[in-house]
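Can anyone check this?
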Amino acid sequence: MSITALNLAVESVIDIINGMENFAQMTRGALGTADGLACEIAPSIPSEVYYDKGAYIPLTLALNGKHPNLLTLSDTLNSIIQDLTRRTQYPSGTDWEIVDITSGNLPRIIGRENNNAWIMAGDLIIKIYERNE
């Protein structure tokens, strides 16, 4: 599986999240200075992945959010995780498919900024299958 396929899988999850009713659109990368939602591949990808044959690859996706209302932020991150982990059908591409999404770490408080915005984070584990025909 190429990095492109990994990125396509992540972008497809972001598209699903952005189809939900959240206080902000999910973006890729680090949280900005304003309230919002962001995600990126967590640094916990396995150190060895054999790309020369069909393989299941677990990918941890870190979800981060910032909002002045802790309940709004918590509900949003929890809803995203609940929705994605309860699905029975996931996106696929020509050489990859998402076969399952589970929760890694449930949303937790990371801190609070000087402007009183809460920061929370949670993780999703995306199980991707590489088709190698």
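Reply from J.R.: I decoded it. The mean pLDDT is 89.
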